[in-house]
Amino acid sequence: MWKSYDDLDVLKGVSFELAQRDVKVIFGPSGSGKSTLLRCINMLEPPDKGEVYLSGQNLMESKANINALRSRIGMVFQHFNLFSHLKAIDNVSIGLRRVKKLPKEEARERALEALHRVKLAEWADHYPAQLSGGQQQRVGIARALVMEPDVILFDEPTSALDPELIGEVLQVMLDLAKTGTTMVVVTHELGFAKAVSSEMLYLDEGVIVERGTPEHFFTSPKSERVRRFLNQINILYGTHEKLFEHSKKENNE
Amino acid sequence: MMFQVLPGPIEEFLVVLEYWDHIFSGFLLTLWLYGWAILIGFFLGLMLAILRHYKLPYPLGIFSDISAGFIEIVRGTPLIAQLLLLYFLPYSLNLPIEKWSFSTNFMIFDKEITLILLNRRTLTGIIVLGLNSSAYQAEYFRGAIMSVGSGQLMAAQSLGMSRFSGVRHIILPQALRRVIPAWSNEAAYLPKYTVIVYLIGVEELFAEAHWIVAKTFISLTTYIVIAVIFLIMITLISKLLDIVHKRTAIPGL
Asked: Which tens digits make up the pLDDT trace of B40-87?
C-alpha cells in the first residue's frame, strides 16, 4: 500500500502477509510510517493506493462493508483511547452491545471474561481515570479481545507507559501470543519480539528495509541502518531479557 | 396617597408592587420565551455543531458549509436586526397576515391574568431567539466535541461502530458533560436577550415594566425590581447547572 499526506509520502509501497497465529513485529525510527501502516490496515486512514485483504475480502473495495470488517480487526492504541465516560466493563462490552447487538447480560458476562483474561476482573466497575496506565492499556486489550477478532493490531502499546507498568502489559500480550492470537505489533520492546514474533519488519522512510526472524535481526542484520537502530534501542530500553527467559521457562514446563 | 407617611423609595416600591399581576405575567412570558429559545437553540445548535465538525461524504458535505455559514452570519449580525428582519419579512413579501393567537387565563388572588402564549409576534420572537442562540450554542458544542479528541472516535470505529454510532454513543456523552461550564454562559445570557422582543410588542417582563413606568412615572424603582427578578432567575439557573455538572461528572476526571 501507498499513503501520502500532501507532499509527504509516508508509505511508499509496503507489502506483507499475515498467516493465522502469526505475530508480526514492526519496528523502526520515529516517523517511518509504522502507525500509519496499522491505520491503513483497518482503513482508519484509507491508503491512497493498494490492497488490504482479510480472508480474501478486499477492504479497499468500495462495496466492502468497512464497519463489519473492522469489527474483525482489533486495535490497541498507544494512548489507550479508552472511552472515559464508561466503566472498564462497559468499555469492553460496548462493542458487543452496539456492533454485535448482544443482549446486555450476555455482553456483560463476556466482557467480564475478557477482563479476567487481562487480570482486571476486580476493576470492572472503575472508570479509566481511576486506573493506572498499565491497567488502562490492559482494558484496551480486553476491549479488542472481546470482539474475537481475526487479528489484533497493537500501535506502540507500551510506549506511553511508566517503565514499571510495561511488564504487566507485555505479560498479557505474551499470553495472547501463546494462545494463538494473530497479532501485528508496532513496538520497540525487543524482548517481546524475541520471545514471540514469527517475523520482524524494519520500516524506515515508508519502506520495509529488512525483514526476518528475531534470530536474524539479533545475530546478523544485513543493513547498517538496522544495526545502528537496534543498538540505540538496546541502550535505551534494554531487551527485557528476564521476561524472555521467564517465558521460555514457562514454555519448557 | 395612603403611603404618604413612608419614606419615598419604600412608598414607590409599594406602588410598583401593586402591579404585581403585570410583573408576574411578564415574568411567565419571559420564562416561556427563554424555555423555547434555549430548547430550540440546544437541538439545532447540536445539529449545526456536528454537521460543521464532521464533514459528511460528497455531496452531503455542503451541509457542513451551510452550517458554518449560518453560524457566522447569525453571530456576525445584530440580534435586533435579525428580529426586525423576520418580523417585517411577511410585510415586505406582501404575504397575507392573519390575526391568530393562543392564550390562557387564570385567576390568582382575585386578579385575572391573561397570557398570550403564541401569536405572530411571540412566534417570531421565539424563532429569532432560538435561531440566534443555536449559532452560539453550536460553537460551544463544537469546542466540546473537539476537546474530546479524535482518538475516541477512532477507537469506536476500530470496534466496528459506524461514525454516526461513535458520535452518538462515545463523543456526545462526553462532549455534553464537558460543555456545561461554557454552555452555562449562554444559559445566563439568553434570559436577558429575550427583552429585545418587547420591540415587536411581546408583553414580556421588560414590556410590562415599561407599561408600569408609563402608568406610574416611577422608573428607577420599577427597573430595579425587574433587574432583581432577572438576577434571581439567572442565579438559580447557574446553581442548577452547577449541580448538573457535578452530578454528571466522570469519576476520577
From this structure: 999 999 999 999 999 888 788 899 999 999 999 999 999 999 999 999
Residue range(s) defining the domain that contains residue B21: 9-247
Angle between helices A163-178 and A133-145 (to 10 degrees): 20
Instruction: Name which of B150, B153, B158 to mutate to probe chain A: the one with the most chain A Cβ atoms within 10 A of its Cβ.
Output: B158
The DSSP string of A166-207 is: HHHHHHHHHHHHHTT--EEEE---HHHHHHH-SEEEEEETTE
Is A82 in CB contact (< 8 Å) with chain B?
Answer: yes
A204 forms beta bridges with: A207
Angle at A137 between CA A131 and CA A138, to 5 degrees: 90
B247, pLDDT greater than 80: yes
Lowest mean pLDDT among A29-33, B7-11, B181-185: B7-11
**Where residue B194 sits, what CATH number does that domain have?**
1.10.3720.10
Nearest Cβ partner of B252 from A69, A98, A130? A130
How many domains does chain B contain in total? 1
| Residue B56 lies inside a defined structural domain of this protein | yes
The model's pTM: 0.87
In this predicted structure, the answer to whether residue A201 has a pLDDT above a threshold of 60 is: yes
The whole-angstrom distance between residue B103's C-alpha and the CA centroid of its chain comes to 21
Confidence band, pLDDT 50/70/90 cuts, at residue A237: low
Reported ipTM: the value is: 0.88
Contact B160 A144 (CB under 8 A): no
* Interface touch A74/B162, C-beta < 8 Å: no
A128 interfacial to chain B (CB closer than 8 Å)? yes
Asked if A83 is an interface residue toward chain B (Cβ–Cβ < 8 A), one would say yes
